[in-house]
Amino acid sequence: MAPVAELICVGTELLLGDILNSNAQFLAKELAKLGIAHYYQSVVGDNPDRIQQVVRTACDRASLLIFTGGLGPTPDDLTHATLADCFGVPLVEHPEILADIAQKFAQRGRTMTPNNHKQALLPQGAQVLTNSGGSAPGIIWQPRPNVTILTFPGVPTEVKYMWQEVAIPYLKSQGWAQNTVYSRVLRFWGISESSLADKVGNWFDSINPTVAPYANLGEVKLRISAFADSEASAQQMIAPVEATLRQVGGIDCYGADEDTLAIAVGRLLQKTGSTLSVAESCTGGSLGGMLTAVSGSSAYFWGGIISYDNSVKTGLLGVDPHVLATHGAVSHEVAKQMAAGVRDRLNTTWGLSITGIAGPTGDTDDKPVGLVYIGLAGRDRVESFEHRFGALRGRDWVRHLSCCTALDHLRRRLLKAEM
Fold first, then answer.
1. Tens-place pLDDT, residues 110-121
2. Does domain 180-256 have CATH number 3.30.70.2860?
């Protein structure tokens, strides 16, 4: 029977929603890369009885149990003690762990406190899963012939380092990672999930590689996954499918994997030797933030003006006060003048603007929450686009869609200029 893994994340803060469970996402992806089957995840609070219940259930359906959280020095850090109790073994102190913790404290100019001694207590028979980045070591333990346990702290950066440096080599040495599942994610903007599914639906029945759609934050993604004996083989299997899906998706496909619309736009601006400036009203600088989140964006993004008040629109961007009075700040006319104004003031190839009503207040009968105008000014023309994003999902949703849609308008214009 193929080995099966189960993730068990310990921490009441996860149940309360105080902390996003990014460790589960990371480890799920890593297990897929190694080709290790993974069917269940559990989140349990800092309670010994409930942790033991989860362990007993997991042992009946998985052979590799991966824990995160509960390895710290405080009283609510119970993972190792509970595991020892669950399998009927004592905790054993490891002097080398104490020495390592004391050294790390000394390097930071601090003194190790008595409660850190708890972190040196591991279940009898367990190996140390070293943690170079923190004070909480994990364990590699086989309490039963058919059960292997790996434990990690809750700090995501420590989990990632320990996984790469210790866990992966161990799993490979034990023959757990014999195959791999490699995935490629294609990203689309400006098309609905249903419309894209209608175009590529025949691929959803594919067995290997598989193709699956999902939508998130206004964009649609197609995940292509292949199961093979190596990542290189999986990539070869995916390549022709990706090429076909890109061709079918056409201009709506803006990138893959970790690409963002800002990255896609940046590539096109660099390719064409163009520069960009932005003028923002309702998004308050978020568009500029997306652009400057890309390393090297200073090569093509020169800056922006946050024209939240109308006096800034007229004073810095040159918007005509008569146009403002006649059409209002949220209008085609003002969006175009904002885009042309910032392009002129900052002397860039392109000017991109956003003006709208993000809500939840400020709307009128004629101009509801979610109404947004995007302006785009280039060498040959100035144009504007109206969008109605609605009020249902709130202010942040409207602002996010406004920024991404503005970038997409510029992306499409740049692509058409190449044709």
1. 888 888 889 999
2. yes
